[in-house]
Amino acid sequence: MAEKKDRAPTMVDAINRALHEAMDSDETIVVIGEDVGTNGGVFRVTAGLKEQFGKDRVIDAPLAESGIIGFSIGMAMNGLKPVAEMQFSGFSYYALAQIENHAARMRWRTRGAHSVPMVIRMPYGAGVRALEHHSESREAFFAHIPGLKIVIPATPARAYALTHAAIRDPDPVIVMEPKAVYRTIREDIDGIEPAEIGVSRTVREGGDLTIVSYGAMLHRALEAAESLAADGIDTDVIDVETISPLDAAPIAASVEKTGRLLIVNEAPPSFGPAGEIAMRVMEESFYSLHCPIRRICGWDIHVPFFAREQAYLPSVDRIVRAARDMITD
Amino acid sequence: MAEKKDRAPTMVDAINRALHEAMDSDETIVVIGEDVGTNGGVFRVTAGLKEQFGKDRVIDAPLAESGIIGFSIGMAMNGLKPVAEMQFSGFSYYALAQIENHAARMRWRTRGAHSVPMVIRMPYGAGVRALEHHSESREAFFAHIPGLKIVIPATPARAYALTHAAIRDPDPVIVMEPKAVYRTIREDIDGIEPAEIGVSRTVREGGDLTIVSYGAMLHRALEAAESLAADGIDTDVIDVETISPLDAAPIAASVEKTGRLLIVNEAPPSFGPAGEIAMRVMEESFYSLHCPIRRICGWDIHVPFFAREQAYLPSVDRIVRAARDMITD
Amino acid sequence: MTGHLEYPEPSTKPHRVLDANGNLVDDQTSIDDDVGFLEEAFKAMLRARRFDERLLKLQRQGAIGTFAPIKGQEAAQVGAASTLRDDDWFVPSFREKAAMLLLGVEMADIFLTAAGWNEGLAGKKGDRRLPETVPVSSQLPIAAGIAYAARLRGEDTVAMVFFGDGATSSGDFHEAMNFASVLKAPVVFVCQNNGWAISTPRSAQTASSTIAQKAHAYGMPSAQVDGNDVLAVRQVVEEAVERARTKGLPSMVEALTYRMEVHTTADDPSRYRDDDEIEAWRARDPITRVETFLRSRSQIDDAMVEVLEEQIQDEIDRAWAATKTRIAELEEQSDEVIFDHIFEDLTPPLKRQRKDFLKTGRGANDG
Amino acid sequence: MTGHLEYPEPSTKPHRVLDANGNLVDDQTSIDDDVGFLEEAFKAMLRARRFDERLLKLQRQGAIGTFAPIKGQEAAQVGAASTLRDDDWFVPSFREKAAMLLLGVEMADIFLTAAGWNEGLAGKKGDRRLPETVPVSSQLPIAAGIAYAARLRGEDTVAMVFFGDGATSSGDFHEAMNFASVLKAPVVFVCQNNGWAISTPRSAQTASSTIAQKAHAYGMPSAQVDGNDVLAVRQVVEEAVERARTKGLPSMVEALTYRMEVHTTADDPSRYRDDDEIEAWRARDPITRVETFLRSRSQIDDAMVEVLEEQIQDEIDRAWAATKTRIAELEEQSDEVIFDHIFEDLTPPLKRQRKDFLKTGRGANDG
Ligand SMILES: Cc1ncc(C[n+]2csc(CCOP(=O)(O)OP(=O)(O)O)c2C)c(N)n1
Ligand SMILES: Cc1ncc(C[n+]2csc(CCOP(=O)(O)OP(=O)(O)O)c2C)c(N)n1
Ligand SMILES: [Mg+2]
Ligand SMILES: [Mg+2]
């Protein structure tokens, strides 16, 4: 059993397998990005693809994020299905104009005559002792743009399921990959079906408190839930997984049971995803709330260099304390 | 009186005057942007500056938003105080990388050895029958970035006060100018003091309901408040003015009185500023809330071409209806 | 210790067939085979000019919104676009109405868009005449990607992308040129250097001697052409199209032309340029030049031009009438269509919002 | 109908003074006046090489984090940076540790940064040696703005900005080059073309014949130089610095060099390049070349090199020891410093968050 787990795929393996399968079954799929070909990606997510599918379908791009996305939009409009990699989410801002101006708008602008069925993958988030600009969580930028879907897998199986789903989607989907989880969890992915985009998943059931999270922080939320359980506090834990369009229904349903909602994510709190989740739940279940919705996030600061990055990230301890406060509130 | 009002400055005039005064009193100030010099800006906000201060201090830049901001960051680091214009906020995404990577971080990165005292002005918002990409409200992008201040004036006097304040600030400040108000309101600005950044202003007092807004929508909120008053519903109206750092205290104080909060802004609702305002008020005044906080925003769609842009914008009618619903809730 | 740094002046000379007076620049050349083309081009340019004038008039009357006139640039657009096959891709900036008309875009659709209705851009599925691009130069990497995809899918189609002199300053121009060249995409980059980017003259935009030479930074061949000489433009662009079609490789053409009108209808050029300059370019009007030539060859005369003018006015009148009818219809429809086409299928939040929208109405008080 | 499009091959030949064996390329040249410089350069390059090796060792031991080794690029950096005055601006990318050391950045600060502490980048107010830039090419427009400001404020200082071959593909390179040229900013653009951008070879990065020729697209002069020839680099860059200082104008230098190590410590070059290539470049090692030359002139001998090596090791040891002490001190301090320097003054939300932070502690369980 333990041995099997040791050999089970990491998130990197899982995405890699999904890409292989997809490219194998659909020859319109192309992969593009900096170092995605010969090098197999700086995180090895695209390893082996160039060998198998050739350099025309696995494109080692020049160093230019706006170019990569603009070029991909063009390919998507002309019969291909590009899966573009931003080497780190911190460099995707260079592509924001192309994403906002065209990827998100082409279907609308042309009243459906053209569409941009493409996937943008990007590793994001802190916790891997990386250099500056390699640790941010700016999913809110993309989630605020109409016409885009944003998904964030938390485990290898979900990464596998969401990568397949993103590729099948007829619209642009951004897959933000929590690189802190890239190699820390192994999980069986055999027989996993493509995900349904736009569905929040309940991953733990309790009755006293609802914790909502996603990405790497989901695991801290789950750890906190265990710790709370030891104290007799039972929590629902919900993985929103699709940031946009946000599925608030299961969260609202849970809150109607628990009356308490704690949101955990690693973006800076201000104008981040937690506020939106809270707003949506409030719109649906205000009268069930026993106490204010709370959020445990990063801080409104730049992610410190790695010696102090854990001081930035929500700790299990902070989650547990907040949860206890809410229960006694 | 009416005559005086006719001659009183518009928001364009007010900003223009602030820029003239500031450049006159501080020779480190430079203005840069596309068409800001000879042409005086496509909205005439920088009219007359080049004639008075010369082409080296009023720089007609090549067509490159990232370049304009990067170049300005450099000037700010070397003893100047640039006031950069993005011709329309919809083109500022090209500069987001420079803003996030450097303007917002240089002080922090160098532990205070360098700072980026610069102002980025950009007209934003819908309602002026403009072309695609000329009508968006994406203040949330900037507000989510640590190290930046974002202000949005709603009237000529506030534009004058905030422009001066932004120029005096030692850190990068983004001034988003609601172009729908550029020429529609005239207001005396003589003797107006520089604003204090980071303060929400109560612009109307009532007791039944709190409406929070900013920018062009503030005027619709005020119109709605008048209409509600006719029905005997008295509203506090608060102009947040500084989006980031957000001053939630006066809003919370008002909600402690009214128990009801309605947020009005023109960004798409999802992951927009309204969620953050709601979250902050909930954190501070949850137990005073009689009913769910509500928001009247744009929709999660692209701003339609101008024949239908009013269908996108929050209407006075929608605000009034929501307010009435909340009162009877 | 000096002499290492160098800036070699490019030797480029703009290609020209007919001079400003409609005479052959080099009387050794025969353009007898091109007279048919010139006649068609004359008609297309005149049609575009008149349409543009009507747009301007309608804008001044408040019937339509802001738009970017083409006056003066008809030859650059018609010459370039005339080289495209039906299955090639046309990727415009926001000032290509002459090319659009030539390529079959309906006047009524252009009117409808200019009047502020999204329906004006509703193309047919897979239509390869793309709508206007507003963010300057953002269409360039897209065109490169379109072209690459065509090649990967085994088509011999090309993508032709249009942009201005101002666009060449922006990062997307650079990235697109580089991608096209190094990844071998069959794109034809057509720069209409009309001397101005709103109020910014070419000299303040970039310090290179020519725009054409910028292509060399990407190992890409290029040429300068008199952009007011429709035949010269066609010849040079044809060569670029051939290179794209047969070799799958990109090139760039700089067409030297002039914007004789306002930048857009929101612009007042008197703030930044002299009438003298406009006058000088009026003498180089791309339409007059062909007209003079055709008259000199007796291909056209007053009577024919008169008939042509009437036909054009008639076509424009009918298109505008149709547009007004269409607008009246659209105004009857519910504005709930604003939620259409954001995604292939409406997402749950959008469904909810549309319901909300229908409940609260449009807010007629603000409309 | 062909022959209009052209791509003139640039004639640039890289400037070189010493060949790979340390012999004068042209025995007509006298470099007697440069021997002093070469001796200094040799020391600086050796010091940088040894420091780099120590960083690599420490990284492999887990004592510091990811960094980008400089091995092979010492001459390009030392030659270029040696031309700067104290009041000039140095604007690096992320691979300029040899230049940084030469310009007085403390080894201990570099160690501290590499160990993950923000304090390593704490400069003195107004310090003109800027810290590393991680987002490729984003430093270029900043350098142009710095230079422009210097000129506007009446200083005769220049800004020297470093970047790689990969950086030249990105929009910010293009926009910076254009701004600097058209707005006349005294910048020296130094491209270290080390053949690779992570796994992407120069040939897949761009199709231009040289990187140097890219400057011509902006009307900017440029030169190619053997980047492993420290004197040649100095000579060419000196000319660019002079042009900036005296004329206030920019230029660009392409230094042909090679990254002999991993891209960063997270990289495995065996995936994408052959050892043969590295071997070939080992023969062109920038340090050996100068060493051979200096030995041939009896400027140095075994004993001197031995002493030098010892001094360097000693300096590195002391710096690392100081760093460890500093880290121990920092580890004692409260992490509340993470809230410092976001703004000049802490904003109210940040004050509240810092209070929160202090209340809930650091979360030792995750640290
Ligand atoms: C990215 C971006 N920045 C700014 C603008 C505003 N703008 C519209 S047209 C224009 C000038 C374009 O000049 P050029 O490329 O020469 O084209 P032309 O207008 O001469 O046809 C500017 C600055 C824009 N549309 N997009
Ligand atoms: C904008 C941006 N995109 C991607 C990266 C990831 N990255 C870091 S270094 C590098 C390659 C840089 O190549 P080059 O400019 O030649 O410099 P070199 O590493 O050879 O010194 C890449 C792609 C980055 N840091 N910034
Ligand atoms: Mg132009
Ligand atoms: Mg390199």
UniProtKB/TrEMBL annotation, chains A, B:
Its cofactor is thiamine diphosphate. Signal peptide: none annotated. Pfam families: Transket_pyr, Transketolase_C. It comes from the Bacteria. This is Pyruvate dehydrogenase E1 component beta subunit. Keywords: Oxidoreductase, Pyruvate, Thiamine pyrophosphate. Residues 9-184 form the Transketolase-like pyrimidine-binding domain. GO terms for molecular function: oxidoreductase activity.
From TrEMBL, chains C, D:
Its cofactor is thiamine diphosphate. The keyword Lipid biosynthesis does not apply. InterPro entries: Alpha-ketoacid_DH_E1_comp (IPR050771), DH_E1 (IPR001017), PdhA/BkdA (IPR017596), THDP-binding (IPR029061). Residues 43-324 form the Dehydrogenase E1 component domain. GO terms for biological process: branched-chain amino acid catabolic process. It is an enzyme of class 1 (oxidoreductase). NCBIfam families: PDH_E1_alph_x (TIGR03181). Heterodimer of an alpha and a beta chain. This is Pyruvate dehydrogenase E1 component subunit alpha. It comes from Ruegeria marina.
